[in-house]
Amino acid sequence: MQAPTLTHELLDNLIRPGPRLPWIKKWLIEKVWTLPLYDSMSHIEYLKAGEDKVNRFEELASFTADRIYRELLSPPDPDKRLLNVLKEDTAVVVFDGLSLREIPIILKLSERSGFNVKEVDCSIAAIPSETMDFVEREFQCGKVSPTNLQTRSELKGRGITAIYTNNITQGINAADGNSPLLVWSAFPDNTYTDSGSKFENHFENIHIQFETSWMHTVQQIKGRKTIIITSDHGYIFFGTGMDRTSSDREIRELNRYFGNNRNISFLDSPHPPNSDDIIIDESKGIAMIKGRIKTRSTGDAATKLYKHGGLSLMEMLTPWVVLEIGVNEAGH
Question: What is the pTM of this model?
Answer without folding.
Answer: 0.93
